[in-house]
Amino acid sequence: MNRRELLHTLAGAPLITLPGFAQAQGPRSLSPAPAALAAAGETALPVWAYDASVPGPVLRYRRGDWLDIDLNNQLPEATTVHWHGIRLPNAMDGVPHLTQAPIEPGARFRYRFKLPDSGTYWYHPHLGAAEQLERGLAGALVVEDDSPPPVDQDIVWLLDDWRLDAQGRIAEDFYRFHDVAHAGRLGQRLTVNGALRPELALRTGQRVRLRLVNAANARLFALQPEPGINAWLIARDGMPAPQAVPWDAPLLIGPGMRADVVVDAVRAGRFAIRQFNGREAEALATLVVGGANDTAPRPAPVPSPYTPPPEPMLAGAVLHTMRLGGGARSREGWPADTPEARAARQQRRAAGAREADPVWTINGQAHVGDHHGHHPPAFRVPQGRSVRIAFENPTAWWHPMHLHGHHFKVLSRNGEPLTEAAWRDTVLLAPGDRAEVAFVADNPGRWLIHCHVLEHHAGGMGTHFEVMA
Ligand code: C2O
Ligand code: CU
User: Fold this and answer.
1) Measuring from atom 1 of ligand 1, which residue has the nearest CA?
2) pLDDT 10s digits, 184-208
């Protein structure tokens, strides 16, 4: 068995995952468990998967529906599920030790809440996340628009990368110091819905909506279609743009972030969606367009009307600065570490614990691992107050900063006010960036703020805040 065969194994996963399930009575069961991805006649790739599918089933709902899921943990270790981007009750947020107890192997937990917003969201573990996601646990959660732009197909593309070892298995070097201190864990094989360089067959005249979800631990996707198809960006992080923006430059999608695009097949041919890595580009997936005749370009799609969350009141809102620190090549902000602490970590690791070294900070504090319940909140705010946060990134690395339980409005980047209404749940900071966001803290509870490069979060780049009812 060689690596090539195993990549075929990955390529054997379905390009379009299961259709959404119909709303049934009572909870739907969802079970994370060890599984094997296999194409017929080949050696299987061991993964961890929701309902034996990589990625997990696409959960599809309409706005206002109840999500009702009975999670049945069949993994050899504890887990939780976080419903990324959903404005849900705190007890359903899936953050271990902060909003719920870990779900032990063999145990169940019922997640039940109403879906307040349409859009493209996703679900993933929030315990030992850097390892559990890397082993294959992630899926899309789609809440359909009330009045979506008409399309011939509405497809989820869950983007990921995989680090395979010399035997072609998932490399088990999770939390490697070098990865934690640099860009995070990058894999050498890029997949769409678990498939290597898949093809999507279209006919001229067809219009397709692609819901792109970046489920990679650390990879920044920078995607652009080859000339020959017409494409637009219509939503970010699930939230519709005021109008469709032509997609004719690399579209940056940081870990955790989503982008909804619409593509029109106007002439026959093969058109790659390319991933840019500096100057180099590789095909991530290819649209294979058939049909005898070219079709006339169609007008841009009209994104669904967007109902934003309450507008923050900027006058009088307290400004919280979150200055990121640490990481390789950084001159400031490395967390304090002592020989005793290092020795204790080494002992825990020898006993089988998987954890990162403290390498990253927010305002000088490193909160390593899944223990956010053990430190005080970065700030408290009475429910209904407006909050401003300024993220400052003096480090040498990119950080997609994600906030739980709320959507925020990006007000400015590097002093430039943003003119479009940019509502998001994650803001991507390039090295040197400063971005200011604001939101109404209307959802009571304790909510995480963290970098979605999972190794950065594990290595300390996370904190929480409390909205007091
Ligand atoms: Cu997608 Cu705190 O996570
Ligand atoms: Cu980061």
Assistant:
1) 84
2) 999 999 999 999 999 999 999 999 9
With a Cβ cut-off of 6 Å, ligand 1 is lined by 82, 84, 124, 126, 256, 402, 404, 448, 450, 452
* CATH topology identical between 3-147 and 318-468: yes
CATH of region 318-468: 2.60.40.420
> pTM (2 decimals)?
0.94
Atom of ligand 1 nearest to the CA of 122: 1
Q: Give the residue carrying structure tokens 């959802």.
A: 443
**C-alpha closest to that of 212 among 228, 225, 202:** 225
Ligand nearest to the CA of 86: 1
Residue 428, amino acid: L
**Bridge partners of 265?**
229
Interval 141-168: pLDDT, tens: 999 988 899 999 999 999 999 999 998 8
Domain boundaries, the chain: 3-147, 318-468
Distance 126 CA to ligand 1 centre (A): 7
* Backbone angle region of 41, left / alpha / beta, with phi > 0 → left and psi within -120 to 50 → alpha: left
Q: Report the CATH number of the 3-147 domain.
A: 2.60.40.420
Q: What is the spatial distance between Cα 306 and Cα 244, in angstroms, rounded to a whole number? A: 13
Nearest CA to ligand 1 atom 3: 84
Distance of CA 374 from the midpoint of ligand 1 (Å):
19
